């Protein structure tokens, strides 16, 4: 009889979005630190989808190069000759069509301890079932999002109508504050939309997993975590165990690889907590009109700023497609750069966000509320000015402002035009007012609790140990 493999592998099945890949890599590091062999299975887009996925290929290559200790396995591209014209459906189709390749890969390994998959890869539960491999979901957004999404299948089964027709009417889900219907993700706005049907089906499959790992820390989302653990988010069905293992964000040492970015030297010369940092994530961008409003608002505020500008999408339907570098002379008001050169810095496309947020000069963060950005700001103790754009970011905005109380809202985001007066008003509020000081006090505690969560014996470390025991990866 063949002896059992003493070191079975954990397979992490990643989605291709940069905001999903990075926390998956951080999870892989966590497993390796505990002596658990791990491999990240990455889908390979077929040539027919090259336009949509071109930027993710370079992101995957960069993550591989930066993490030589982590094994990456590139699943072969599926046959997809006629891709759906909708980019989001393209991604969902790609992940669904990749399941047979994942199944073959699982069967090729000597021993697999567990399959940990991104929620977008939920069809891969079928591959786990066919191989008898225990499957877990790694949820890379907030526990609040998870609580709301777990409840959506029940909500859709017991109500009529669509969120898009409800305006700002409050939705009440277990574990989260009331959510304006208009702040729900576009993917679930219209119950007649095929995308909505697919996503509700995805959420309905979450309880099939053996457990859910969540990139959060319990102090930050105590109410949502409590509801998840009490099982009230999924009426009539058991909820799998939930493990809060975050915040998993890029470490200082990883962020500092390579040559130090010029903006960090610029920050070195600024007073402590004096700079407003504006960045809308790896894919986010505001309109050309809003870029000018931001510029006027920053100029009128009188505060120092570090601003990452990306080219606005010419066609809203192509929001997620790669875009060229911005022409700052064309996009920003005439003379803006010259007038603010002594207190501002404008960057094209990208900044080392983790390092910027952790810099002593950074005093506020204008953010799209992507969950990685929220965790990075909370862990660094930086107040947030919330300007959500897509996906679950509007939900995160609700939680950041109303539940966590670590940020304020940029009003007008839902009308697709935040005015210069609002930018100036909110920058001054956070940087100058008593309310801003209270935010900083709250953020100082959030930073402290994040460090405690990830320290030896901290809640997130204990949750990881519990997961390893549950999945029989440790005794």
Automatic annotation (TrEMBL):
<keyword id="KW-0808">Transferase</keyword>
<dbReference type="InterPro" id="IPR002213">
    <property type="entry name" value="UDP_glucos_trans"/>
</dbReference>
<dbReference type="GO" id="GO:0035251">
    <property type="term" value="F:UDP-glucosyltransferase activity"/>
</dbReference>
<dbReference type="Pfam" id="PF00201">
    <property type="entry name" value="UDPGT"/>
</dbReference>
<comment type="similarity">
    <text>Belongs to the UDP-glycosyltransferase family.</text>
</comment>
<dbReference type="InterPro" id="IPR035595">
    <property type="entry name" value="UDP_glycos_trans_CS"/>
</dbReference>
<protein>
    <recommendedName>
        <fullName>Glycosyltransferase</fullName>
        <ecNumber>2.4.1.-</ecNumber>
    </recommendedName>
</protein>
<dbReference type="InterPro" id="IPR050481">
    <property type="entry name" value="UDP-glycosyltransf_plant"/>
</dbReference>
<keyword id="KW-0328">Glycosyltransferase</keyword>
<dbReference type="GO" id="GO:0016757">
    <property type="term" value="F:glycosyltransferase activity"/>
</dbReference>
């Amino acid at each position: 009889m063949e002896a059992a493999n003493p070191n079975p592998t954990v397979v992490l099945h990643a989605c291709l979005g940069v905001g999903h890949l990075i926390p998956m890599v951080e999870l892989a590091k966590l497993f390796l630190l505990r002596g658990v062999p791990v491999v990240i299975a990455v889908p390979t887009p077929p040539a027919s989808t090259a336009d949509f996925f071109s930027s993710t290929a370079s992101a995957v290559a960069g993550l591989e190069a930066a993490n030589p200790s982590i094994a990456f396995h590139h699943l072969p591209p599926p046959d997809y000759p006629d891709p759906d014209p909708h980019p989001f459906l393209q991604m969902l189709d790609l992940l669904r069509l990749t399941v047979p390749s994942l199944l073959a890969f699982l069967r090729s390994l000597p021993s697999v301890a567990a399959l940990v998959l991104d929620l977008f890869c939920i069809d891969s539960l079928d591959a786990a079932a066919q191989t008898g491999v225990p499957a877990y979901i790694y949820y890379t957004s907030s526990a609040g999002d998870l609580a709301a999404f777990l409840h959506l299948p029940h909500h859709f089964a017991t109500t009529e109508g669509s969120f898009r027709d409800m305006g700002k009417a409050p939705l009440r889900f277990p574990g989260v504050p009331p959510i304006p219907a208009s702040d729900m993700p576009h993917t679930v706005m219209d119950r007649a939309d095929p995308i909505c049907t697919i996503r509700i089906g995805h959420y309905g499959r979450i309880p099939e997993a053996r457990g859910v790992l969540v990139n959060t820390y319990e102090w930050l989302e105590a109410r949502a975590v409590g509801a998840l653990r009490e099982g009230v988010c999924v009426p009539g069905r058991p909820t799998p165990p939930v493990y809060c293992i975050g915040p998993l964000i890029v470490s200082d040492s990883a962020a500092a690889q390579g040559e130090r970015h010029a903006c960090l030297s610029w920050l070195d010369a600024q007073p402590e907590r004096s700079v407003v940092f504006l960045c809308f994530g790896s894919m986010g961008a505001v309109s050309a009109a809003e870029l000018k409003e931001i510029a006027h608002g920053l100029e009128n505020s009188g505060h120092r700023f570090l601003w990452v500008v990306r080219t606005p999408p010419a066609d809203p339907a192509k929001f997620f497609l790669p875009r060229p570098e911005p022409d700052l002379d064309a996009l920003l008001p005439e003379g803006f750069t010259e007038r603010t050169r002594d207190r501002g810095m404008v960057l094209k496309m990208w900044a080392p966000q983790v390092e910027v947020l952790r810099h002593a000069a950074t005093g506020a963060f204008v953010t799209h509320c992507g969950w990685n950005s929220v965790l990075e700001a909370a862990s660094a103790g930086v107040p947030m000015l919330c300007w959500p754009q897509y996906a679950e970011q509007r939900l995160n905005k609700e939680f950041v402002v109303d539940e966590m109380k670590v940020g304020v809202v940029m009003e007008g985001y839902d009308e697709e035009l935040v005015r210069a007066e609002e930018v100036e008003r909110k920058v001054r509020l956070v940087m100058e007012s008593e309310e801003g000081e209270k935010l900083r006090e709250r953020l100082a505690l959030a930073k402290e609790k994040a460090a405690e969560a990830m320290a030896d014996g901290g809640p997130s470390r204990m949750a990881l140990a519990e997961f390893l025991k549950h999945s029989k990866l440790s005794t």
